[in-house]
């Protein structure tokens, strides 16, 4: 079974085949790996084409049925109407907590609404700030509805230094968004 100019050895079954053979007559193994007639190459190209097709359909469907509202256009219509600041000690750490109510004056529903609280001393200087982790602490608010929220973080100052605060809605996602 030595190689001669007219034959070669099949790498799959080790039988002698003619050099011009595209397929081994013994095991049906394709001799040229990158031939367009090779079923493996055709299958790989089919998978690439189908993947591109499904990605294109996904992008089209997202544009057709995806998010309809951009939060930036509605930022002034989602506001905090009341809030209170509390301090507590837990495990030798001082925590500052803000609880409040936000209202949605828009026609859109929002999810993962994130709020930020800014704290000021008696001179009006900002001394601390906390924000909600919108993925876990964010809340949902329906059109013309209200929702309660709570955010907290470690305090950087003593409770007596927190003389005033302001709370803002910073982020939100259209409730129709998937991610």
Architecture overview:
It is a single chain. With 179 residues, this protein is of the alpha+beta class. The chain has 2 domains: 7-65, no CATH class; 71-174, Sandwich (Immunoglobulin-like), CATH 2.60.40.10. 20% of the residues lie in helices and 40% in strands. The protein is built from 3 helices and 9 strands, in the order E-E-H-H-E-E-E-E-H-E-E-E. Strands 5, 6, 7 and 9 form a 4-stranded antiparallel sheet that branches. A 3-stranded antiparallel sheet has the order 3-4-8, with no helix packed on it. Strand 1 and strand 2 (16-18) form a beta hairpin. The model has no long low-confidence stretch (mean pLDDT 88).
CATH topology group of the largest domain: Immunoglobulin-like
By CATH, the superfamily of the largest domain comes out as Immunoglobulins
Overall tally of structural domains: 2
Largest sheet: 4 strands, antiparallel
Q: Given the C-alpha coordinates, what overall shape results? A: elongated
| CATH hierarchy class name of the largest domain | Mainly Beta
Radius of gyration, in angstroms, nearest whole number: 32 Å
Judging by the overall fold, what is the CATH architecture of the largest domain?
A: Sandwich
Tell me the layout of helices and strands.
Elements: E1 7-9, E2 16-18, H1 39-65, H2 71-74, E3 78-90, E4 93-104, E5 110-120, E6 126-131, H3 134-137, E7 139-141, E8 146-154, E9 164-174
Antiparallel strand pairs: 1-2, 3-4, 4-8, 5-6, 5-7, 5-9
For this entry, give a set of tags.
179 residues; alpha+beta; Immunoglobulin-like; 2 domains; 4-stranded antiparallel beta sheet; 3 helices; 9 strands; elongated
